[in-house]
Amino acid sequence: MENPRRPPKVLGFCSFRYGLSFLLHFCNVVVFAQNLSLSLTMVVMVNHTEPQSLTNFSANELPAHMKNPVYDWSPDIQGIILSSFFYGLILVPIPIGYFSGICSVKKMVGSAIFLSSVVCLFIPLAADLGKTTIILCRVLQGIAQSTVTTGQHEIWVRWAPPLERGRLTSISLSGCVLGPFIALLVTGLICQSLGWPMVFYIFGASGCALCLPWFILVYDDPKDHPCISISEKEYITSSTVQQSSSKRKPLPIKAMLKSLPLWAISIGNIASFWTNSIMSLYSPMFINSMFHVDVRENGLLSALPYLFAWIFGILAGQMSDFFQSRNILSLLTIRKLFTSLGLLLPALFSVCLLYLSPSFISTIIFLILIIATVSFNTVGTFLNALDIAPRYYGFLRGVTTFVGVMGGLMASTLTGIIINQDPETSWFKIFILLSAINVGSNIFYLVFAAVEVQDWARDGEQTRL
Fold first, then answer.
1. What angle, rounded to 10 degrees, do the helices at 360-373 and 331-355 form?
2. What contacts 214, CB < 8 A, 6 or more positions away?
3. 3-state class of 71 per DSSP?
4. H and E: helices and strands count for the chain
5. Residue-wise pLDDT tens digits, 146-199
6. Full-prediction pTM beyond 0.85?
7. How far is CA 370 from CA 129, 178, 280, 347, 431, in A?
């Protein structure tokens, strides 16, 4: 008799659930590439050498026929423009998380991808119209990305068997770091060859094209999909039958607020978002300030960490499912292990960057390790909410994402202020603060984390609330 936990006909990359995971992967690639590209184009969009009265001219280092407007935005204005993206992020995670449990995730995520792509196409014109317009575009991009990253998690409540959660989630979420890699890798080349406006036109058009397969191929529930095999459909539905409830009941808000395991997840997210926001938005600026490289080399150097983060994220998903399926480690140990790797290693390498990186090569190595090791948290705090409350997973992902984004917003804004006020020692302060937040958050998570379904997340007849 076949083992129901490992049916040979439904496992493997040829199954439809893996196809869905890869499609989500590419959606995340495009959306994150669209939103991150501004952090590198900002290097050539800002006038560092000409009088501030000249707000728009063709960059001399590029071919004369290429249009490259340059603007006199001060460092604090640049920080506001870059961080305004987070103001969009904080507006929608909670409502999107709630409605993802009762509305069509397919329509929500697909519409958000289209919105992000259209706004990306509008960025060059928005920059010409003024600071206010480009800030508004960044807010809209934040709303769109938050909808994509928050809403997609509800898909795995119905599509991911418990022993494959790590793999399917890590494959889809690894697009969130492959997107920055591609953006940083090609943005410098596009800027020098075609002009920086083409960066936004190319990524925006790619997102519009991706919407077509999304709306055709994706279904909210495997039971409704016309193309999935019967064996795979039975395997998925039988293994996920108890992960959600068809009855929608009022949210146990008071119990959630008192839940220390949920607070542990939220605080872990703060640290992850803090690290990611600083490294994604300011690593090109850090490299430029330390080594004064041109935009193409800056893009290549800034992209390398995300390639390794992509690899580490996929490996983390494979390893966590391997440990769980072979009963090598308990689920709680797995969550604590990968959360600790995702928080403590970036803190360690941040300190090493300050004290053990006298050369160009060692600096780049530590930058790579800081960003890459954050990906271990994909199967740590990012997936932990599905363990403790599967029937409220979409809403809790929205809540924990909101809390994390608040940390990212504070990190990006504070970093811009520190750089503007104290250029001499700014990076020392930034990385020491990053390390302290990661270590403190990890200690809290190790003490209060849990993987058992909480009483307030059980079905009505089982709950004591």
1. 160
2. 23, 27, 106, 109, 110, 113
3. strand
4. 18, 0
5. 899 888 888 888 888 888 888 888 888 888 888 888 887 888 788 878 888 899
6. no
7. 37, 15, 11, 8, 10
Residue 4 scores a pLDDT above 70: no
100 three-state secondary structure: coil
| DSSP tag of 46 | B
Compute CA 94 distance to the chain's CA centroid, rounded to the nearest angstrom: 16
Q: For residue 46, what are the β-bridge partners?
A: 71
Burial of 462 (0-12, 13-18, 19+ CB in 10 A): exposed
Phi first, then psi: give them for residue 71, nearest 5 degrees: -125, 155
The whole-angstrom separation of Cα 302 and Cα 208 is 26
Quick one: the chain helix, strand, coil %, rounded to 5? 75, 0, 25
Query: How many whole angstroms separate alpha carbon 361 and alpha carbon 383?
Result: 34
How far apart (Å, rounded) are the C-alpha atoms in residues 186 and 194?
A: 11
Distances (CA, A) of 428 to 286, 408, 431: 11, 18, 6
* The one-letter amino acid at 99: F
Rounded to 5°, the CA angle 19-24-30 comes to: 130
The pLDDT of residue 202: 93
Angle (CA) 235-237-239 rounded to 5° is: 65
Residue keyed to tokens 């196409």:
121
Q: How far is CA 25 from CA 168, 195, 357, 376, in A?
A: 10, 28, 34, 17
pLDDT digits (tens, 9 = 90+) for 383-431: 898 889 888 888 898 898 889 888 888 888 888 888 888 766 888 889 9
CA distance 138 to 167: 32
What's the token pair of residue 278?
Answer: 């600083």
Distance between CA atoms of 59 and 54, rounded to whole angstroms? 12
Residue from 15, 331, 382 nearest 170 by CA: 382
* Per-residue pLDDT at 419: 84
Identify which of 96, 177, 169 has the alpha carbon closest to the alpha carbon of residue 397: 96
Q: How far apart are CA 347 and CA 425, in angstroms?
A: 18
| pLDDT tens column, 216-258 | 888 888 888 888 888 888 888 877 665 554 455 678 889 999 9
Q: How far is residue 88's CA from residue 91's CA, in Å, rounded to a whole number?
A: 5
